[in-house]
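Before the break, one more example. Copy the sequence into your notebook; we will annotate it together after we see the structure.
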Amino acid sequence: MRIALFQPDIAGNVGTILRLAACLGAGVDLIEPMGFAWGDRALARAGMDYAQAIEVTRHIDWAAFEAQVQGRIVLLTTQGGTRLDEALFRADDVLLLGSEGSGVPPEVHARADLAVRIPLVPGLRSLNVAVAAGIALGEALRQTSGWPS
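Here is what the structure looks like once it is written out:
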């Protein structure tokens, strides 16, 4: 199982997701351009030394990521799709999250093999991207018996 971040804007969120992925045994794909430098302090502070314990692959753009992706692309989106608690995950899924400021463009939505939304209380817009990644990864690992032993 992998987490892919499409053009992330906030270093602290990426660092938090790196830590999450390291602790739960998932790889991370970063699809550039990013809204910060790779060595950003906020990234280091949030990711601490966990970035050394995980496989991080940086892709120069969407086309480079798409050319190498294996498994299904499961897009986490606020724009419809299957409810998280009704989605069926596979062990080789790539959980894709959009940038904090703009999500993903229509062509990325169209490419997703599955679009999944986390149900929220009516009237509220969205979760922090790192929180959404944690919720979705937890459910996907539960379904696929992928939790670390």
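Residues 129-143 form the longest helix (15 residues). The beta strands are 2-6, 27-31, 56-59, 73-76, 82-83, 94-97, 114-117. Try to locate both features in your own notes.
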